[in-house]
């Protein structure tokens, strides 16, 4: 696969050196490179809101980019009613939103005019989040361990395995639902104890978490044998959700299988999916999300796939 610099709209690309071509006809333009700062399990990028330095969470689980209300006020932004009175549903409940337009928003060294954000209260350790309205426009390579995110525009790559960095590493490929305005999240499938489950790749969630309903079908409940408390998670909304850890026979996604997998579970309010694959999964893998092609290509970096250290409180994304 050949990767060269490109220009798309207002975003100037940078040259990217890659491994030898996977498919000679495939070309990928790098639209934007974002250096990633990992604070614990939170992937953050530097930005500017007007002339104010800011830091945003990269949140593939958020359908839209958001600025925390206290930070929007501190930046001197004008708040207006959000279109159609949008409400955000997160793991802790629902929250009302306002809207704002940032006249000058800089990301990855590129300044964009008149960028629209939702504004809400919530559990934010950063100034806000960069969501799927930005991340799903192009293909995206997520390399948290290597400290970078790249927005990529492919050309003629429909039959190409896009994990150009892999070398001799095994590559897993999984399908994702077509990403679009009506389906902004990265939704795929995995297998728990051999049963198919629906997973959402959610980089804004510090820790991966399985729904308690799915855990119960596998024989595990909060007060059952072999189950241990594992702290609580918070996010949009006011509720704190207690979590628990149990050992399942297997967890499989793509060609990667963990036997005797210890997984965290808790109450997820969205009935449309069974598990969040959080920043711990992203950090233990390098991923290419082909939004246009409907696939994810990933390789394993090594080390634990899931962070199961007991934390009093951690963040789960909207």
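-> sequence recovered:
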């Amino acid at each position: 696969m050949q990767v060269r610099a490109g220009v798309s709209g207002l975003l100037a690309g940078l040259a990217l050196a890659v491994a030898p071509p996977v498919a000679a006809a495939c070309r990928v333009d790098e639209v934007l490179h974002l250096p990633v700062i990992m604070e614990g399990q939170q992937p953050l990028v530097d930005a500017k809101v007007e002339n104010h330095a800011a830091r945003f969470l990269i949140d593939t689980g958020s359908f839209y980019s958001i600025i925390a209300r206290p930070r929007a006020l501190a930046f001197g932004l004008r708040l207006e009613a959000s279109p159609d009175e949008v409400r955000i549903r997160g793991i802790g409940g629902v929250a009302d939103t306002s809207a704002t337009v940032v006249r000058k928003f800089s990301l990855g060294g590129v300044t964009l005019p008149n960028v629209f954000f939702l504004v809400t209260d919530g559990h934010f350790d950063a100034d806000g989040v960069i969501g799927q309205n930005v991340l799903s426009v192009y293909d995206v390579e997520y390399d948290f361990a290597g400290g970078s995110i790249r927005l990529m525009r492919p050309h003629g790559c429909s039959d190409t395995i896009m994990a150009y960095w892999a070398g001799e590493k095994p590559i897993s490929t999984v399908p994702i639902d077509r990403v679009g305005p009506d389906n902004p999240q990265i939704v795929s499938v995995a297998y728990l104890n051999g049963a198919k489950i629906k997973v959402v790749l959610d980089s804004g969630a510090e820790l991966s978490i399985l729904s308690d309903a799915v855990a119960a079908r596998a024989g595990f409940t909060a007060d059952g044998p072999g189950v241990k408390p594992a702290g609580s998670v918070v996010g949009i909304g006011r509720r704190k959700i207690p979590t628990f850890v149990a050992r399942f026979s297997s967890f499989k996604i793509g060609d990667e299988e963990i036997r005797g997998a210890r997984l965290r579970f808790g109450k997820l309010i969205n009935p449309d999916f069974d598990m969040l694959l959080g920043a711990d999964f992203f950090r233990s893998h390098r991923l290419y999300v082909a939004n246009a092609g409907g696939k994810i290509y990933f390789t394993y970096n090594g080390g634990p796939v899931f962070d199961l250290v007991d934390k009093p409180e951690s963040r789960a994304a909207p």
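Residues 1-22, 312-318 have pLDDT under 50 and may be disordered.
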